[in-house]
Every structure is written in structure tokens, then in C-alpha cells.
Amino acid sequence: MTHVDVTVPDGLLEALGRAPHEMAAELCLAAAIHWYRQGVLSMERAAEMTGMLSRRAVLLISLAFLAACGGSGATAPTPVDQTVRSLSVECRPVLFVGEVRPCVAVAVLTDGRQLVVSPAATWSASSPAVVTVSPIGDVRGVAEGQSAVKASYAGREASTTVAVKGGDAVLVASVTDQGIASPGNWVTLSAQGFYAVQSADAGLLRLLIYDQRGTAVVGDARSVQRGGDAFVLSVTFQVPAGSTRLCRRVRLTIGPAIVEEPSGAEAESLCVTVQ
Q: Looking at per-residue confidence, does 17 or 235 come out higher?
């Protein structure tokens, strides 16, 4: 992955109330939306550029694109102007209690086009005690069990099943990098995602950085309470001499138990090659 440094005016981060890694993520998303609207990038490339999970990135880019259409002479699809041939719904099939993930509703028009219509659809859950659904399709796990999640749009309906499970968990949704990863340089590596603590009243969450030799940079521990919530963790450090690859791992410690993410083949997606 190529890294680009961006200089912003003094005081801008403070004025916007953003941390550096949050600003970097928002700039990437804004650029991806702009280039997608201009036709420079495909949806897949734009989603990849954001560094987020592809489904979430596709949803955000599509929402921004549909919102912009109203001011650019084009019109977003409506039941009056377009005939919808079919509707489909995609959700993350398994959530933890407290976890929030977007469902995406896609309408196929008679001319073959596929449009994300999540903000215009009507959403419902068959078991609100298990999951709740926001007006734009964000689903939150409430309690263990299963529930159908349904979207209705232009006279069409589609649904899928979402299961909710309890337990302790860490899920990494996206990562951001700041600085050029070269030996001796200072860099900031961040990870964003979701944690769940169910087996105790509290736990400790931290970001670990390791290279091909296993040398670790351990971020400060963050105390988290029972339940589940989103997290943003970052570590600023000097790239060690001899490092060729830097990887991230988020660790949740609950008493003697340790839960870490990512594991297996997924670990490669959170690594940075040292130049």
C-alpha cells in the first residue's frame, strides 16, 4: 500500500474536533466519494481506498452519491419514476450483543441497473428483542437469538436472517496509517472496530504492533466495561531498525483470558510493508 502524507493548517484538527487518525479516515472517504462521482474510480476501488470493510464503504459512498444527485440535475430513484424489478438485502449474518452493522438494500431496475436504496427503504425486524433496525438499515444486536430483518421499497420486499450471540469478542473493522513506514521514522498505526465483554464486569483493550521478528510495541491499555461498543486505538512509535513488516493485533484481556483479533490469514490485512 502506498502512503501519502497530507499537511493541514495549524488548529484545523482542534477546530473540527478530530484526532489525526480520524481526519485521515475522513479525507480518504471524501476523496473516494469524489472520484467515484467523477467516474474516475469504480465502486470496488473507492471502497478499497477507504480502508473500511467493503460493505460499509459501499453504503457510505452510495449514500453520498444519492444525496449529491439532488443538487446536480440528476434524480435519485423513487417508486414513481422507476420500476423496480427486484430487491435484495445483505446483512452481516452473525452479530455480538451490542454490535452495530449496516444492512444494505439493493434494488434492481428494469433497465438492469442496481442501486443502493437503504436510506429510502422501510426496515423492520421480526424479533425486536433480538435485534433493532435503524431507519437506514443499521442493525444492533440486543440479545442472543435469531431474527429476520426485512426491507420494503417500491412495493418489493426482501429479508435475511441475523443471529446474535453473546461472549467476549474483538472485531477489527478498519485501519489507518500515518507517516512513512521506514526504519527510524515515526508512524501512527490505528485500528477501529467493536468489542464485547460478557463474562466479567470489565476488561482491558490495547493495540499491539509486531514485526517479522515478533518485536512488539504495546499501546496503552484502555479499560472497557461489560457490554459492547465501538473502539478506536492508535499507537505512535519509531519503526525499529531491521523491521520489514509491521502488523496490528487488538487484544482484549478479561482476567486470565485473552481474546485477540485478527487471527490466521486475516492478519495479513492489517500489515504494513516497511520501505
A: 235
Beta strands in the chain (DSSP E): 84-90, 94-96, 100-102, 104-109, 114-116, 122-125, 131-133, 138-141, 145-153, 156-165, 169-178, 186-211, 216-218, 222-238, 245-254, 257-261, 271-273
**Distance separating alpha carbons of residues 25 and 193, to the nearest angstrom:** 13
SS3 content of the chain, % helix, strand, coil (to 5): 20, 45, 35
245 vs 24, 105, 140, 215, 242, CA distance in Å?
A: 21, 38, 36, 11, 9
Tell me whether domains 84-165 and 169-273 share a fold.
yes
- What is the architecture of the domain spanning 84-165? Sandwich (2.60)
- Report yes or no: 89 and 161 within 8 Å, Cβ to Cβ: no
Q: Quick check: 269 pLDDT over 50?
A: yes
Per-residue pLDDT band at 69 (split at 50, 70, 90): very low
pLDDT for residue 78: 43
Which pLDDT score, from 0 to 100, does residue 180 have?
92
Out of 3.40.50.720, 3.30.420.10, 2.60.40.10, 3.30.70.20, which CATH number does the structure's domain 169-273 have?
Answer: 2.60.40.10
Whether the per-residue pLDDT at 70 is higher than 50: the answer is no
Domain ranges of the chain: 12-69, 84-165, 169-273
